[in-house]
Amino acid sequence: MLYALTAILVALIVYGIVRGHSLREISGMAWSGVGVAKNIFIVMLMVGVMTALWRASGTVAYIVSVTSGALQPAFFLPAAFVLNSLLSALTGTSVGTAATMGSICMSVGCAMGISPAVCGGAILSGAFFGDRCSPVSTSALLVAQVTGTNIYDNIRGMIRTCILPFVLSLGIFAGTGYLMESASTATNVTDIFSQFYNLHWTLLFPAATILILACLRVNIKLNMAISILLSAILAWSMQGMAPEKICETMIFGYSAPEDISEMLSGGGLLGMLKMCGTILISLTFVGLIKGTGILEKVKVLISRLSHRISPFGCTLFTAILTSMTSCNQTMSIVLTNEMCESVVTDKNKRALFIENSSVVVAGIIPWSMASLVPLGAMGAPTSSVLFAAYLYLIFIFQWITEKRN
């Protein structure tokens, strides 16, 4: 992905030179797009450290162990949707959720005889619940940054517009689960994790802190710093991890024992650098596209389109176009904001429209990294995007609501 984005970046630079811009002017254009990235980079690196220590301390293992008891055959699909929604709300990452709770749900679902594609759709829906509206979600933070809005105000709007889609998704998954024949199976996740972790209720502290402090509107970076500190203390006191190993985990990510490596390994400072690089290049595109005049031409087309369809319909069209061409949720968010700025002038409304279009649409484009990575992490087929009911209902409900108003 980085190679492809770099190739596009080079093409944009060449186009700028052909249009008569100097290298200094082009550098200025590129830097103007990157200007909003400083805060998001810091937060993303902190997310990498935090998720690594949540794995090392046993927080993720304990949450999965406690909640996996709800995965009974008759209610498997709605339970998988809810459990992945809860974990993604805590972690703010669809990939991290898919690799932990998602991989367990896939294993249990396949053992029950449930279609991997349908199972993957329920998990992907849940994984994107928090990716869209968690206070520690990098996509939610990016939307707030590029639109100049408050993330907590955005979250209130997202919660308001996701209630009905969430309930309808539960009904769809419950109905699908009822219609599908499945054989009962018993999977004791607690026994597996207890071989490698000292499982205790105190391991919930790092996750609970994130939610409580978010409700109190504590600064995101301070919130995560406290959770990181608690996780490090628990990794040392509860799991017997040496301080130097904790530091290593913070940088390189957590390496779980082989038996549970696929479920729990990951995170770390370095693990987020590739994502930071993707965001950096994506934001550079915006500066170059804007500076070379490409964006203005596209904006004119989008503006003309807005007279034919509703503002959200225009935003959704732009989100689909940018998601399909960039294969990247981050770039879709940034470009959709730039192209629809004149169509939706209210920045709070524009932020909500982007959350209900670009963020979720990227998850249902089969060749987008936003769908390929989490599906690969949980071992689900690409066709799972067809069954991610929640992602479709979010933008359908928003479009219907706008038309009614």
Task: Describe the structure concisely for a colleague.
This protein is an all-alpha fold and 405 residues long. The protein is built from 22 helices and no strands.
Characterization of the model:
The chain has helices at about 1-20, 25-35, 35-55, 60-65, 75-90, 95-110, 115-135, 140-145, 150-180, 190-195, 205-215, 220-235, 245-250, 260-265, 275-290, 295-305, 310-325, 330-340, 345-355, 360, 370-380, 390-405. It folds into two domains: about 50-265, no CATH class; about 275-405, no CATH class. The chain is globular. The model has no long low-confidence stretch (mean pLDDT about 85). The longest helix has 29 residues, at about 150-180. It starts with a helix and ends with a helix. With about 400 residues, it is mainly alpha-helical. It contains 22 helices and no strands.
User: Which structural class is indicated by helix and strand composition?
Assistant: mainly alpha
Number of strands: 0
* Low-confidence runs of at least 5 consecutive residues: none
Please indicate the count of domains.
Answer: 2
Calculate Rg over CA atoms. Answer: 21 Å
The sequence of SSEs as H and E is: HHHHHHHHHHHHHHHHHHHHHH
Q: Kindly estimate the percentage of residues that lie in beta strands according to DSSP.
A: under 5%
Number of helices: 22
Q: What would you call the shape?
A: globular
Mean pLDDT over the full residue set? 86
Helix coverage percent of residues?
A: over 70%
Give the CA-CA distance, first to last residue: 40 Å
